Amino acid sequence: RLSDRLQAIFKKLRGHGKLTEEQITTALREIRLALLEADVHYGVVKDFLDRVRERAVGREVLQSLTPGQQVVKVVFEELTLLLGGEESTLAFAGHPPSVVMLVGLQGSGKTTTAAKLAALLTRQGRRPLLVAADTRRPAAAEQLRVLGAKIGVEVVTDPRSSALALCHKAVEYAQTRGLEPILVDTGGRLHIDDELMAELRAVKEAVHPVETLLVLDAMTGQDALSVATGFHSTLDLSGFILTKLEGDARGGAAISVRAVTGRPIKFIGLGERLEALEPFHPERMASRILG
Amino acid sequence: LLTRPRLDPDALEELEEILITADLGMPTTRQLLDTIPPSISEPEELLHFLRDQVTDILSAPEQSIPEGHPHVALILGVNGVGKTTTIGKLAFRGIRQGKRVLLAAADTFRAAAIEQLQIWGQRAGAEVVAHQEGGDPAAVVFDALQASLAREMDLLLIDTAGRLHTKKNLMEELKKIGRVVSRNIPGAPHETLLILDATTGLNAAVQVREFHQLMGITGLIVTKLDGTAKGGSLIGIVGELQIPVRYVGFGEGIEDLAPFSPPAFAAALFS
Ligand SMILES: Nc1nc2c(ncn2[C@@H]2O[C@H](COP(=O)(O)OP(=O)(O)OP(=O)(O)O)[C@@H](O)[C@H]2O)c(=O)[nH]1
Ligand SMILES: Nc1nc2c(ncn2[C@@H]2O[C@H](COP(=O)(O)OP(=O)(O)OP(=O)(O)O)[C@@H](O)[C@H]2O)c(=O)[nH]1
Ligand SMILES: [Mg+2]
Ligand SMILES: [Mg+2]
After folding, report:
1. What digits encode the pLDDT tens for the residues A23-58?
2. Ligand 1: which of A102, A103, A106, A111 to mutate, judged by most atoms within 8 Å of the beta carbon?
3. From the CB of residue A136, how many other CB atoms can be counted at a distance below 10 Å?
């Protein structure tokens, strides 16, 4: 564990001795290894370490009786700061119906998460509407329809409609039926697929979602940075949902996407059941990433 | 960090960045960089050398596949990696090769999983054995095995539900499916293929180890290589476990599958 490794580095220091440059460098190297092992992006780790180094040569560490522990504390605090700071809630528009768009790579968990959000909102006393705007994947609409039926939430589908037309139809329907918010499940796509990214942009410009959430698999590696950057630059994301977090992936992608976009992680997916959605807790994520 | 004084430290750092951001992980990156002979100093030479090293590692595992009639392949992997889609692609390949192909819809858990596979079956020209959603996956597999024998199928592909290797009960279910296969067709499953998503980071190695320990993985398929992820965790995985990579998936279309080519993969890594 990182804390044990750092303790070992600093145990040679007795009382209020000055930390050597070598000890700090060695400590930073251990932290770097731990973060890379956790799938945090290479460049993001570099920037993060600069921040840690600044504090590591400061009084709080130098004057500590247990500098090893203090450095761990610094890293944990800096990670938590980086990850946190905002509420895990969905925004709502000034006048209904608000639209929430779920986007992301293939297989990240968007359809399941759309249904989870619908379930959560229903428990909170709202009456959401699901939109099966994935027009490409075999049986995608059916998948959302089955999930919607489980939780008593209506699903707008139409095998002959485009994603854009479906969203227009959904807004009208929601308005007439007083349903809110509208949860749009989009088809998985690559951030480098210009045509499909343009499709998303067109939907966004038409229905002005109050949330544009990137649904990201917690086991995503270094690629998380390009994915987040790609989706963010085209769509101006409002936040992230990290899925499959009940597994044993360290989840360093969370750090990368937060660092590169500044947008918050709002929820985490902890399983395949529709109840398995929770608000994001930065300190818990920080300690998980540190391993 | 590295003990090659003849190599420019900036060049080494650049290489390290290329390899780490390709998801090789630090241990494999260090191993690779440590193999650079002192005689090499030019960047061109360096890249060429590393490409060859990667190609060698990925070509090393034993490649033979046991023959079966029907040939039974069990498809496994964590959630969302591309199992069902890859089966569609494999089925199409088989049909193209003149084989009689049958698919088993043994993901009885996830919403519309059966329908999804049935559509792929239609696209490929392969029949699908399926029960109800919520049914026993082992029962589907049993029926599919019987059907492939009775109808003299050449190839049976078994789709399973995505599952995290951390879920003991789901891994037990998988083991049970494996037993149903081997009890009903001697020598089967002839292939147990783990599907890996190229966007996955270092957890891919954990997935392979866990599934391999439980089931004995005979081959890997890496999907979504049409994205920006390089799938570099494969190098450490193949090096450690000597499991061959059989195919790569590079798109959502039925033909977006190709036999794995170590030199092509190595070249893409450094491009
Ligand atoms: N273990 C686990 N599995 C999840 C979680 N969220 C989703 N899944 C599973 O991940 C797989 C993919 O989920 P989908 O909802 O189909 O993903 P998607 O992003 O809609 O996929 P595409 O539409 O093809 O891009 C399914 O097997 C889900 O049950 C989670 O939090 N934990
Ligand atoms: N871009 C790209 N997408 C792929 C590839 N292979 C599969 N996909 C997509 O990934 C998503 C998930 O594919 P599935 O076949 O449903 O994955 P799965 O492993 O069966 O998922 P579960 O059964 O839910 O665990 C779909 O949107 C597929 O179209 C690939 O090689 N490239
Ligand atoms: Mg979907
Ligand atoms: Mg599937």
Report:
1. 888 899 999 999 999 999 999 999 999 999 998 888
2. A111
3. 11
d(CA B182, CA B145): 10
The pLDDT tens digits of the residues spanning B110-147 come to 999 999 999 999 999 999 999 999 999 999 999 999 99
Strand B191-197 vs strand B71-76: parallel, antiparallel, or unpaired? parallel
| A221 at B interface, C-beta within 8 A | yes
According to DSSP, residue A58 is labeled: S
Are the CB atoms for B216 and B39 separated by under 8 Å? no
Decide if B169 contacts B163 (C-beta within 8 A): no
Is the Cβ of A219 closer than 8 Å to some Cβ of chain B?
yes
Compute the nearest-CA separation of B114 from chain A (Å).
9
